[in-house]
């Protein structure tokens, strides 16, 4: 049932956003480094590696610069046009093609690079491999402002690895054990909501029973 919804919705959304892509593609082609798409290996269902597709928003060599896979608030590797695309999440729209192909679902745990995925405890890795990763999900909703969570941290990498990733894994695992058609469409609605109101804590009311946030992060949603 979910796969049918993925096919129908991804086809509909692709048709709706094509006019926007017609604008974004030439803008990217003739600005920054001239790159339009960015392909990055991510861990999918059953541990299969697939190439996640995004609009290019950062310098080509970004994975080998600064904090690597981790993007910080006001990260200097992000190109000027890229800042707009990332803030509005337009940069994520090409992943609708990943959904259409079957690499991803509209809703599910957010796919991670192999290095970041390895930061999850083994039991969480095993659980997340059971389902397709998602274009959005409860994790991405809660961590919409992840870059700002890291802002001001003495060691952003340590905070990410020791606090954010374990909690994010518990949240993604919670969705896995509570998924339903209702939660599928509720995630879509809440995704739009947090794009409009990024500091909103409405997700806690929308998804009762979520794992308790660590004290280092709890103040972010207040």
Mean pLDDT: 88
Number of alpha- plus pi-helical segments: 11
Proportion of helical residues: 40-55%
Give the oligomeric state: single chain
- Proportion of residues in β-strands: 5-15%
Radius of gyration: 17 Å
Describe the biggest sheet? 2 strands, antiparallel
Strand order of the largest sheet: 1-2
* Helix/sheet category: mainly alpha
What form results from the Cα inertia axes? Answer: globular
The H/E string reads HEEHHEHHEHHHHHH
Distance between the termini: 36 Å
Uncertain segments of ≥5 residues (pLDDT<50)? none
Features:
two-stranded antiparallel ribbon; 4 strands; 222 residues; 11 helices; mainly alpha; two-stranded parallel ribbon
């Amino acid at each position: 049932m979910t796969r049918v919804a993925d096919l129908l919705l991804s086809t509909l959304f692709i048709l709706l956003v094509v006019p926007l892509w017609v604008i974004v593609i030439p803008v990217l082609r003739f600005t920054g480094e001239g790159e339009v798409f960015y392909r990055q290996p991510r861990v999918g269902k059953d541990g299969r590696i697939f190439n996640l597709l995004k609009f290019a928003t950062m310098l080509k060599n970004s994975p080998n610069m600064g904090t690597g896979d981790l993007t910080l608030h006001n990260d200097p590797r992000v190109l000027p046009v890229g800042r707009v695309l990332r803030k509005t999440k337009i940069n994520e729209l090409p992943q609708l093609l990943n959904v259409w192909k079957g690499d991803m679902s509209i809703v599910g745990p957010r796919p991670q690079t192999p290095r970041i995925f390895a930061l999850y405890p083994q039991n969480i890795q095993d659980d997340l491999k059971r389902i397709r990763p998602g274009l959005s999900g409860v994790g991405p909703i809660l961590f919409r402002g992840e870059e700002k969570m890291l802002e001001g941290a003495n060691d952003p990498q340590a905070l990410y690895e020791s606090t954010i990733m374990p909690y994010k894994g518990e949240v993604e695992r919670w969705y896995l054990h509570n998924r339903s058609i209702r939660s599928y469409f509720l995630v879509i609605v809440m995704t739009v909501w947090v794009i409009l109101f990024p500091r909103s804590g409405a997700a806690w009311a929308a998804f009762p029973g979520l794992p308790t946030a660590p004290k280092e992060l709890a103040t972010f949603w207040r």
